[in-house]
Amino acid sequence: LSYKYAQLRQQGYQQELESRDLRWQAIGYASDLSFSAGKQAMQALLRRDTRPDAVFAVSDTLAAGAMSAIESAGLRIPQDIAVAGFDGSELAEIVTPALTTVAQPSHEIGRTAFDLLLKKIADPLAPTERVMMAWRLILRASA
Fold this sequence. Notes:
elongated
């Protein structure tokens, strides 16, 4: 995971599973954040001896690619493999079955980033601020 936000998403996922005494495995990574990379990563997972029963992708686009690979392999979502994404993008509503996703407040993130940029321009020596925003789980048919 070369993207900092992807690392944070994975850490949050792992912490939530551990807090519920659920087992997890970090078993594969996509080469980038595209649909085709998600599909290729899922195909690699399906070639392993032990098939996962669930997949968490750090973006809805990767999850959609994973779903394509799962269906191409003749497997059912969520009966054979549950899938969840992260973003809360419109794509999550378009794919079939509809994707369970962790939604982030995109508009609020943009406004906050702009405000932080303005503060930094006004005072270049001010300390860097780190802002974590609330998320929400949107349960749909894929998990």
